C-alpha cells in the first residue's frame, strides 16, 4: 500500500504546473532565481550530510573483528567544531545577500511612499471580484490588461476584508488591505495570458475570485484603454 501511495503521489506531481518556475516578467524571474538558488544551496547541505551519514554507518558498522574493540576517549576536535560553525554561517551569508537585495527591491510600499514611473493601474479587491482602473479612467472587472516591457505600478486596495493579489507567472503574492494602499511593481512583463487569483481565504466564494492578466503590445494597450 505504501508503494502504491508513493506511485500515485508521483503521478499527481508530474501533472503540476509550477507557474512560479516559469517566470514571464523580470520581477518573477528574480523571485524564481531565489527559489532555484536556495534549493540547490540546500541540496549541497543534504548531499554532504547524506554522504557523511553513509560513510560513518559503513565505517563504524558492527563486525566480528570489532566486537572487542574499544575506541579511545575523544573530548573534542577544534577543527571539526570550527568547521560546523563557520560553514553554516557562510552558507547563510551567501543565501542572505541576494535574498535581502531582491526582497528589499521588490517589497510593496505604502502609496504615499511610491515614486515609480510607468503604467499605473488601480486595483480594488472586493468579495468576490477584482476591479481594475486605468489612468484614462477605464474600469473593468476581472480582466487585467497591461503593456509588455513596461514598469507596471499596481495600486492595491480592498473594500472589505484582506485579500491577496497573485499572478504566479508575473510576481509573488501581495496582501491587499482594507483602508490602506500598497504599491507593487511588476517589471517588463512578456506578452501572454496568465491566470491571477486571490491567494488569501476571504469568504465562502473565495475560489471564484480569479481574473485573467493579459499582457499585450504597447500599441494594443493604448487602443484598449482609449476605446469606449
From TrEMBL:
It is a multi-pass membrane protein. One of its GO terms (biological process) is ATP synthesis coupled electron transport. GO terms for molecular function: copper ion binding; cytochrome-c oxidase activity; oxidoreductase activity. Binds a copper A center. One of its GO terms (cellular component) is plasma membrane. PROSITE patterns: COX2, COX2_CUA, COX2_TM, PROKAR_LIPOPROTEIN. Residues 12-110 form the Cytochrome oxidase subunit II transmembrane region profile domain. Keywords: Copper, Electron transport, Membrane, Metal-binding, Respiratory chain, Translocase, Transmembrane, Transmembrane helix, Transport. It catalyses: 4 Fe(II)-[cytochrome c] + O2 + 8 H(+)(in) = 4 Fe(III)-[cytochrome c] + 2 H2O + 4 H(+)(out). Residues 116-227 form the Cytochrome oxidase subunit II copper A binding domain. The chain crosses the membrane at residues 33-58, 82-104. It is found in: Cell membrane; Membrane. Its EC number is 7.1.1.9. Its cofactor is Cu cation. InterPro entries: CcO_II, CcO_II-like_C, Copper_CuA, Cupredoxin, Cyt_c_oxidase_su2, Cyt_c_oxidase_su2_TM_dom, Cyt_c_oxidase_su2_TM_sf. Belongs to the cytochrome c oxidase subunit 2 family. Subunits I and II form the functional core of the enzyme complex. Electrons originating in cytochrome c are transferred via heme a and Cu(A) to the binuclear center formed by heme a3 and Cu(B). This is Cytochrome c oxidase subunit 2. It comes from Virgibacillus profundi. The gene is coxB.
Amino acid at each position: 500500500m505504501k508503494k502504491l501511495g508513493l506511485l500515485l503521489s508521483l503521478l499527481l506531481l508530474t501533472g503540476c504546473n509550477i507557474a512560479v518556475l516559469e517566470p514571464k516578467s523580470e520581477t518573477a524571474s528574480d523571485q524564481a532565481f531565489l527559489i532555484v538558488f536556495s534549493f540547490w544551496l540546500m541540496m549541497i547541505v543534504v548531499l554532504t550530510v547524506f554522504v557523511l551519514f553513509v560513510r560513518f554507518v559503513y565505517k563504524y558498522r558492527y563486525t566480528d573483528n570489532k566486537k572487542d574493540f574499544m575506541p579511545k576517549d575523544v573530548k573534542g576536535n577544534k577543527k571539526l567544531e570550527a568547521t560546523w560553525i563557520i560553514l553554516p554561517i557562510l552558507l547563510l551569508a551567501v543565501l542572505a545577500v541576494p535574498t535581502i537585495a531582491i526582497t528589499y527591491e521588490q517589497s510593496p510600499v505604502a502609496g504615499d511612499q511610491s515614486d515609480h514611473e510607468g503604467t499605473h493601474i488601480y486595483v480594488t479587491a472586493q468579495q468576490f471580484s477584482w476591479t481594475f482602473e486605468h489612468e484614462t479612467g477605464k474600469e473593468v472587472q476581472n480582466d487585467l490588461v497591461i503593456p509588455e516591457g513596461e514598469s507596471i505600478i499596481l495600486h492595491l486596495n480592498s473594500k472589505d476584508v484582506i485579500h491577496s493579489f497573485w499572478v504566479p507567472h508575473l510576481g509573488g503574492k501581495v496582501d491587499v488591505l482594507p483602508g490602506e494602499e500598497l504599491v507593487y511593481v511588476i517589471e517588463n512583463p512578456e506578452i501572454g495570458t496568465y491566470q491571477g487569483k486571490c491567494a488569501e481565504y476571504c469568504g465562502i466564494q473565495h475560489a471564484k475570485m480569479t481574473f485573467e492578466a493579459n499582457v499585450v503590445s504597447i500599441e494594443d494597450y493604448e487602443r484598449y484603454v482609449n476605446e469606449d
